[in-house]
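Weekly sync notes, structure subgroup
Attendees: PM, AL, DS (notes)

Item 1: joint prediction request from the bench team. They want all two components modeled as one assembly rather than separately. Inputs as received:
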Amino acid sequence: MSEVFFLAEFAGTPARSAQELATGAAKLAREAGGQAVGLAYGEGAADGAAALGTWGAARVIVLGDSNAPVITHAAAAASAIRDGGLALLAPATPNGRDLAAAMVGLLGVPAFGPVRAVRFEDGRLRAEASTLQGTSVTISEPSDGAPGPAVVLALAGTFTPEESSGTASVETAETAETAETAPADGGRLAAPRIVESHAEGKAAVNLEEAQVIVAGGRGVGSSDGFAQLQQLADALGGAVGASRAAADAGWVPYQLQIGQTGKVDLRRHSAPGGYADSGECGGHQQGPGCPHWRVRRPVRGWRPVCDRPQVDR
Amino acid sequence: MKIVVCVKQVPATTAEKRYTSDFRLDRASAESVINPLDEYAIEQALRLQEAGAVESVAYLSMGPEQTAEALRRALAMGGDEAYLVTDGGLGGADLWATARVLAAALDKLAPDVALMGMASDDAKGSLVPGAVAAIRGLPLLSYGSELRLEDSVARIRRLNATGYDIIEAPLPVVASVTDQVGEPRYASLKGIMAAKRKPLETWSLADLGISADELHGAALTRVVEVRPPEPKAPTERIEGIPPEEAASRIADWLAARKLI
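Output from the run, pasted for the record:
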C-alpha cells in the first residue's frame, strides 16, 4: 500500500492545516511513489472535499460533514486506513490529535510527533521532532515490522501549501454511526455528542489557524491595551493571543489564551509564521519550537528569549 | 462513582536533561515532578470528590520504580489509593505501548472516569487519552475546561473558536482536562503524612496479563539520531531610536522577507 493519508479539517472551508497536510502528503507520495488521500471531516467537508485536489490530494474520503465531536469519525477513519499505507499525517490541533490517537488505539500503529519535518529516506519514514525544550532534534522511524500507516502529528507550518491544478476524486466513508460496518467498539467510542453550544463573542481569527500571532501579557495593562494589539494583528493579518495572566484578568476571553487550555500552545500546538509579543514576562515558555520570526517588547528590560529570534524562510 | 487519575512523572522544566547512549532520556540525572498538566486532572477529581459526586479517587501511573514518588505526591494532595505499573519490559515504551498498558490497568480498576491531563510536559503528544479510549472502546471527552458527573452521564465544557460546547457521554468514559479546571492545591503537611499510609500497589505486566511479545519490545517506533538544533542567526537589536522609526524598520525588515 503506498497511500499517504492526511486528516483534512473543515470549518466551512478547508482549514489551513488541511491545505498544508495535503501539500505535504502529495510531496511524500511523490517521494514514495504513491498517492495522497485525504480524510475530510467538519462542516463543509462533503462540498469542499474535491477542492483538496488543489493542494495535491488524488482522492478524498469524507468521514463526516457536521461539527460533531471528531471522535465520532474514528471508526470510519480506521476503516479507510486499516489496509495499511505509508503514513497518516494529522494536524497537531486538539481535533487532529484526538482522531490520530484513536487510530493508534484502534489499529495498533506507530505514532510520531509532534514533528516539524517528515520525509522518506531509503523507503523508510523519518520523523524529525524538537525535543527537550528545543535543546535537541530527534529523528525517529517505525520499528521493523511495525504495521502501517505510521501516524505523524505535524505542527502547523511543517509544510507550506502549494496550489496546483489537480482535482481529487471524492467518496463517502461508511459512517461511524453504522455500527455493523464499524470496527470493534467504535459505537461506544463514538458516543460523545454536543448537547449545548454557547457563543461568547464575535468570531475571532482562529488562533490555531493564525499565521501571525500578536500576543500580550499582564504588562499590556487593560482590555484597551489589547484593543491596540488587535489593531496591530489586523494590520499584519494575524490574530491576538494572550497569556494566562491577561485572560484571568478578564482583558481577553480564554479562547485567546496561548497556553494549556486546549486551544493553542506555542510549545505544543502551533508553529506560526510570526509571533510578536508585548508586555509578557515569560522566558523559555515562548522559546522553543515555534515562530519563524518574532518581535518582542517585554515587560521589564531585555530578556534572554529576545536573543533567540529565528528566521527560517 | 470512582475516578482513576492517570499521572505521569516527567523531568522538571528547569532540570538539565540529556539522552543516554541508546537515545532514552537519562531520568537518573533529571529532577522529576508530577506532569504539571496532570495536577489539573488531580484537582478536578478531588473537587468532584469534595462535592460528593465521587466516592473514591485513585491514581495510576506507569514508569520505573521511582515513579512511586509522584504517586505519593498525588496522594498527599488527596485521594485514596494508587497503582504503579512497573516492569523491566517497559523501558523505552512508546505511545502505543503506554496506551496499551494503561488501558489494561484501567480495565482492571474499572473506574467510571479515567481522567488525564491534556498533555504531558515532555512528550507533548496529547495522544494517550484518545488511544486509551479507543483501545478500551469507551467514549472520549477531551480538553475539558470542567468535568461534571451525574447519575450515568459525564459532561465536559470545551472551548471552541468563539465560545464553548457542552459535550456529553454515558459513563464509563475516558476524559482529559485543561488548566482551566482551577489551580491545583498544594499538599499540606497533614496530607503528606497521611499519604504515607495510603495504599500504593505495584503491578507487573504479568499482573495485567500482558506478555512482553505482545508489546513488540514496548515500542513500534525507534529513535535513530539525536543532534543539537541548527544554530540561530545573530540577533539584531533595534534600540535608542524613536518608536515610529523603530516600527518602520521592523515593518521594512518583515516586508523584505515577505512575512507581512
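Discussion: Chain B touches chain A through 75 residues (CB under 8 Å).
Action: AL to compare against the crosslinking data before next sync.
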